Amino acid sequence: MKITCFFLVPGLVLLAASRLLAQQTFPLYSGTIPDSKPSEVQETSITLANGGVRISNVVQPNLTAFLPAPGTANGTAVIICPGGGYTRLSIDSEGYDVAKRLNEMGVTAFVLKYRLPNDQSQPDKTMAPLLDAQQALRLVRQQAAKYSLNPERIGLVGFSAGGHLAAWAGTQFAKPVGPNPGPVSVRPAFLVLMYPVISFSDSLRHPGSRDNLLGKTPTGGQVRQYSNELQVTTQTPPTFLVHAQDDKTVPVNNSIVFYQACLRHGVPAEMHLYPHGGHGFGLHNKTTKDDWTEHLKNWLDANGWLTK
Questions:
Q1: Domains defined along the chain, listed by start
Q2: From CA 234, how far away is CA 264, in angstroms rounded?
Q3: Which of 78, 163, 239, 281 has a 20 to 30 Å separation from 254 between CA atoms?
Q4: Could you count the other beta carbons within 10 Å of the beta carbon of residue 285?
């Protein structure tokens, strides 16, 4: 009789378990999804020639967890909101790739596949993205023990329109949206805003983001409500901003007016502006050898978020 023996090396077991957990994707909502209605809308995913992945028509929002290597996690987590003008999600370059870089800093990362505004599948398309961002914060806090996280050290990272969503969640958390929000805080500990859409004013708006979220004829009240620089208070979380001066898609003044609002209200903020780089450069601004993620690492460290 042939007997096969298997010897388990503890470190390898932990690594294998970590990888399994890191690849876990789980739904935002365990039951009925708020602000949703039956429709024929179906999620679509396309892979570009350069390998990039774009997701549209999200109906079932979810989170994908990326965990640091065993023994390196520091208890801080981020929820990443990819950009795409509120019409698609650049889920790889502004999601998965960023999560892996944050893992190298010991930060646990969750990529948020949030619903994009859609009249066919949502009774109120102007609220669906914020509902999902707030639920993501709530859910990660509720699962903090599972991932060995400090529930007071969960931040939001947002790119482009995802930056609008992150800033939106970071300025309007006092009154959570949706039915029965519960007692769990939806205030992020900090914000990282990458070439963000901030303002919906006529002079600063990214037309696609505003039109997709509010329609082509928003009221003056809606424009003010969704212009995040006007919603900053003393309770707005510390903020880190990055933008390029030659951004022709989202004017650099979006970041500048948010930074100025932080200054007026005494909110700690750090901003890095590049003369070149355009829009959507993700992890790497190819016009410079400077690495904005190193500045982010220093900022996180200076605020104690990289300390175990």
A1: 41-302 (3.40.50.1820)
A2: 9
A3: 78
A4: 19
Average pLDDT over residues 70-97: 97
pLDDT digit string (tens) for 93-133? 999 999 999 999 999 999 999 999 999 999 999 999 999 99
What pLDDT, on the 0 to 100 scale, is given for residue 251?
97
Task: Report phi then psi at 35, rounded to 5.
Answer: 55, 50
User: How big is the CA angle at 223 (ends 225 and 164), to the nearest 5 degrees?
Assistant: 70
DSSP code, position 229: G
240 C-beta neighbours (distance < 10 Å), count: 22
Helical residues (DSSP H) of 105-179, grouped into ranges: 128-142, 161-171
Tokens 């930074």 map to which residue?
259
Strand order in the sheet with 44-47: 44-47, 53-56, 89-90
3-state secondary structure of 148: coil
In whole angstroms, give the CA distance from residue 135 to residue 132.
5
Q: Which residue has the tokens 């050898």?
A: 289
Other CB atoms within 10 Å distance of the CB of residue 136: 27
Q: Judging by beta carbons within 10 Å of its beta carbon (0-12, 13-18, 19+), is residue 9 exposed, middle or buried?
A: exposed
Element of type H or E holding 217: none
Query: Is 174 or 19 the better-scoring residue by pLDDT?
Result: 174
User: What does the alpha-carbon distance between residue 162 and residue 198 come to, in Å, rounded to a whole number?
Assistant: 10
| Closest to 28 measured CA to CA, from 107, 81, 67, 101 | 81
Query: 244 pairs with which residues across the strands?
Result: 274
For 74-225, list the strands marked E by DSSP.
Answer: 77-81, 89-90, 108-113, 154-159, 191-194
153 vs 139: CA distance, rounded Å: 14
Residue 128 backbone phi and psi in degrees, to 5: -55, -45
